[in-house]
Each structure stands twice: as structure tokens, then as C-alpha cells.
Amino acid sequence: MVWLRMIRVLFADDHEMVRIGVSSYLASQKDIDVIAEASDGEEAVKMALEHKPDIILMDLVMKEMDGIEATQNIKEAWPEAKIIIVTSFLDDDKVYPALEAGATSYMLKTSKANEIADAIRATYEGQSILEPEVTGKIMSKMQTSKDEELHHQLTEREKEVLLLMAEGKTNQEIADELFIALKTVKVHVSNILGKLEVQDRTQAVIYAFKNKLV
């Protein structure tokens, strides 16, 4: 007989019917055991530190203490905790704070019960499971951060040159307006293209408008 490792789960959600529905399905799984349920954030923190479950399913909007604060408190006291957010919200003010607080995975309540069970197994094995919409938000934020990092590398003079480029001025016109040599303008333009990781002036101007530099 093969011994099956049970994944011990704590489920925190302030809606009793949600807990009953999800817990009933998880109870039918041979490798998952819902050892405790919490109806608010404070209770979730207390039970998490008392039972030290393998996985914590955490709702975000709850009375007394929300899921973000509960997640943060649990991770501060017990850094090894693996927390899966299960919520109805995809707002930026929910997604990013939850992940920054230490949540390992992020699922929506619209997910099927078997998908939540699979997320529990995957998270238990060390993976991070994110809804496609969440992944998209993260990638977008990373790109935005990268863009900010790129144009912050520009010197004040290079920003002036980029602004004039966006106005459609030629290198000679830029040189005349800034009272610098044409050769110097060409050096600035070359530096701008390199720092913004673009191929030509047109792409640099598009970048400038996209990132509201002009």
C-alpha cells in the first residue's frame, strides 16, 4: 500500500457558503485535508500560526482584518507559509498588495473547484499559480517599471533633445536651438537611441509619447 501525503489546508473566507462549497469538494480529494476554516482575517492569522497548515486559502475582503493584512501578518511571523489568494477581485489595489504581502498564488472565485485543488497541489510543490489576468498585470507593470528605468537614464540635455525630436526638428535645427554643435546633437541622438533600446528616431519619438515624456 502506497502512503499518500495529505496536504493540510486552512481556508479563510467570510462567506460560509463559499467555504462549504469549496471545502466539500476538497474533502473528496484523497490528498487534501481541510484542517480548519476561518471566517475573518484575525481568525485566519491565529489558526495559521496554531496549525501551521501546508497551504492557506485566503479571501481578500473580510471583516475585522482583510486578507492582505492577514497575509502580511502570517508571513512576518511564519515566512515559510504558502498562501493562495482566492478572491473575486482583480483590481490593482488588491493584486499587487496581496503579492507584495507574500501571497504565493492568486486565484479567482470563478475558478472551478478542481482548478483550486490543482493550484493547492502546485503551490505545495513550490510553484506559483496566477490567473492569466494577474500575469498580464504583472508583466505590464514590469514593462512600465523598465520603461521608467530606461528614460530615467537620460540626462537633462538628452531629454531636451528628445523633446525637440518629438517636435519634428532636424539635428541641425536642434543644434541651432540649443546652441550646440551638430556633431554634439548626433552624439546625443545616438545616446538616446541606445538608452531607450530603440532603433531609430521614429521609435524614440513613439516611446516619448507613449511614456508621456512629451
UniProtKB/TrEMBL annotation:
Keywords: DNA-binding, Phosphoprotein, Transcription, Transcription regulation. Pfam families: GerE (PF00196), Response_reg (PF00072). The modification 4-aspartylphosphate is found at residue 59. GO terms for biological process: phosphorelay signal transduction system; regulation of DNA-templated transcription. It comes from Salinibacillus kushneri. Its main location: cytoplasm. GO terms for cellular component: cytoplasm. The keyword DNA-binding applies. Residues 8-124 form the Response regulatory domain. This is Two-component system, NarL family, response regulator LiaR. GO terms for molecular function: DNA binding. It is found in: Cytoplasm. The keyword S-adenosyl-L-methionine does not apply. InterPro entries: CheY-like_superfamily, NreC/VraR/RcsB-like_REC, Sig_transdc_resp-reg_C-effctor, Sig_transdc_resp-reg_receiver, Tscrpt_reg_LuxR_C, WalR-like. Residues 147-212 form the HTH luxR-type domain.
